[in-house]
Amino acid sequence: MFLKYLPPVLFSMFFVGMCSFYYITYLSMQGVYIQLIVGCVVLLMVMSAIQVIRFGPGYVDQDKLETQLFNELQEELKLLMMSEDRLLDFLDQNQCNQPLSEEQLIHMLNIKVLESKGIKICKTCQSYKPLRAHHCSQCKQCVFRMDHHCMWLNICIGMQNYKYFMMLIFYLNLCIILVLITYFQTYILAIEESDFQLIAKFTYYHSIFTLFMLFFPFFLHHIGCQQSNDY
Ligand SMILES: [Zn+2]
Ligand SMILES: [Zn+2]
């Protein structure tokens, strides 16, 4: 149970640590307007992360789906009972020659309703799985338009929070670009003043921050996926 929260906690600690270091050593040397811009981007990033968690991925609401299916089944049953031609047609379609019990008829109607809606039974959690829903093994639930389970936030990314997740990745990239620009300015300053200790320190932290650049292809991949609509 505790392990579940380890990645988000470690990630937050690492990120906060890096940001504090960045602020103390670099940003404090920059103009107030740069500090304000970086501050706003970080704030927007945190707000997007909160929205991702607040909205959730959009788990399949089994109770709502069951009520919907039940109502539809009742409607179909009513229509069949009202017209004999329709009932005969239905039996013909299902290749039934012998008379059916009410239970058998309801069972067949149930299959028809599920098929018409593209709803399947999830092999893992045995509950109804609508079209484009996927099962998440970490959440142990089916999720609408599941993208992936984000281990850093420990939440699924699905239909409901995808927009906020994209915003989070966008602000994260913006933050990295700002960091790289401001780093560069201070770096040049350190070279001009021949402060080798500072240059070594900068190079070390710069390479760690560059690791965050790995998020950029990830962002492009998500944009590409969204445009081709294949997620
Ligand atoms: Zn499932
Ligand atoms: Zn999940």
TrEMBL record:
GO cellular component terms listed in the entry, alphabetical order: endoplasmic reticulum; Golgi apparatus; membrane
Chief subcellular location: membrane
Protein name: Palmitoyltransferase
Membrane-traversing stretches: 6-25, 32-53, 168-190, 202-220
Chain ranges of the Palmitoyltransferase DHHC domain: 117-222
UniProt entry keywords in alphabetical sequence: Acyltransferase, Membrane, Transferase, Transmembrane, Transmembrane helix
InterPro entries per record: Palmitoyltrfase_DHHC, PFA4/ZDH16/20/ERF2-like
UniProt free text on domains: The DHHC domain is required for palmitoyltransferase activity.
One Pfam family in the UniProt entry: DHHC
Family: Belongs to the DHHC palmitoyltransferase family.
EC number: 2.3.1.225
Class of this enzyme: transferase
Signal peptide (UniProt feature, chain positions): none
Single GO biological process annotation from the record: protein targeting to membrane
Record's subcellular location: Membrane
Membrane topology: Multi-pass membrane protein
Catalytic activity, reaction form: L-cysteinyl-[protein] + hexadecanoyl-CoA = S-hexadecanoyl-L-cysteinyl-[protein] + CoA
GO molecular function, one term: protein-cysteine S-palmitoyltransferase activity
